[in-house]
Amino acid sequence: MTIRVSRRNFVAGGAALLSLSALAPSAFAQDARLRVLWWGSQPRADRTNKVSELYKAKNSGVSITGEFLGWGDYWPRLATQVAGRNAPDVIQMDYRYIVEYARRGALAPLESYTPAKLDLGDFDKAQVDGGSVDGHLYGVSLGANSAATMLNTTAFEEAGVDLPTRDTTWEEFGRMATEITKAGKRKGMFGMADGSGAEPLFENYLRQRGKALYTADAKIAFGVEDASEWFDMWAKFRESGACVPADIQALDKSDIETSTVSSGKAAAAYAHSNQFVAYQQMNKDKLSLTNYMRVTKDTKGGHYRKPSMFFSVSSQSKAVDQAVDYVNFFVKDPTAAEALGVERGIPESKAMRDVVASTLDDVSKKPLEYVAGLGDLAGKLPPPPPSGAGEGELTLRSISEQVGFGQLTPADGGKQLVDEITRILARG
After folding, report:
1. Arithmetic mean of pLDDT, 163-173
2. Residue 139 φ then ψ, to 5°
3. pLDDT over 70 percentage in the chain
4. Omega before 164 cis (within 30°)?
5. Average pLDDT rounded to a whole number, residues 255-263
6. How far apart are CA 236 and CA 128, in angstroms?
7. Spatial contact of 9 and 77, defined as CB atoms under 8 Å apart
8. Strands, E, within 73-201: which ranges?
9. Vertex 151, ends 150 and 154: CA angle to 5°?
10. For residue 72, what pLDDT band results from cuts at 50, 70 and 90?
11. Separation CA 95–CA 148 (nearest Å)
12. Which residue has better confidence, 23 or 184?
């Protein structure tokens, strides 16, 4: 069972991080002990543990302890461990948090290890840059993905509703979702999840409107009108029965296991393309994935190809060299690539993409084909989110719930979101 990160826990973890001072990395250890921490589902854990076993087989004397948590539990745990100087050696890091952890001295800079010990030569430059902060490399991308809509194809077919296309608008999708709900083919199933608190979905909506979440100089990049109209759109979806009510959405803890698609509460939900493999493993019905809906027919898509996640190395590690070697194995060894597939995204290394492409089954091919086929739906990768972006995500989720439960109007929710994120960024 996972729990949602509270803003209090996040702020406490961030405050603890502020007291951190980076420790010098040690020399390469012959009998090294590595701790690896990541978020994700059981299928991801199985693949990760297999790679660790492959690494140990080629590196005698190295022991590896792996631990994984759901997204909601992960960030409080990591913040607590870092602040308590008990950080794991290898840390799975997200694009929205890397600036914060890097600038607080929690991560070891890795550029001095390239290319001799960390070979990123055949990575796309933009993806390497995505793991860089203030001119230093702090994260190695584990794969490329893009935001996506997960569809229960079987449920759509049972309700006699066509699947959305790459040109479907939110208004059209709302009507389709309402039809599924009213068809009542499955007890308690609604047409779609409530995405009002999903930051990637909101960001996509903003990008279609020519806006963004944040500017390159760490300022809020959207206004009260944008946020209010966003909350109003979802209020109308709830009113029409297109999406699940607030009490059901609150059970979704931002992981695959509790997603409204996996729980059978919705025929569509919002995730990332690399999660499709695990979604299909956990769902008996046939699933498919498509892009987020368009705001209007003539808007370009708000998608982008992003690092799905990074591996970073703790500045506190007593085995930095060994940790870097493990990360390099993870992204550059053919046996590791075969074990990982595309569950963490499409491999950044061209050589590893070629290895993986020949091994993919039909399910694993779908996220690859999806990202490759985004076309005009995809734009430029935004700059790394500023310090405080993680708390900003929690703020969006919290306010969206308050609007969903009727505690705030969409207009008041929009104003409160802008005010609170502005204050968060000002503190950073």
Report:
1. 97
2. -150, 140
3. 93
4. no
5. 95
6. 41
7. no
8. 90-93, 132-133, 136-137, 140-141, 144-145, 147-152
9. 150
10. confident
11. 17
12. 184
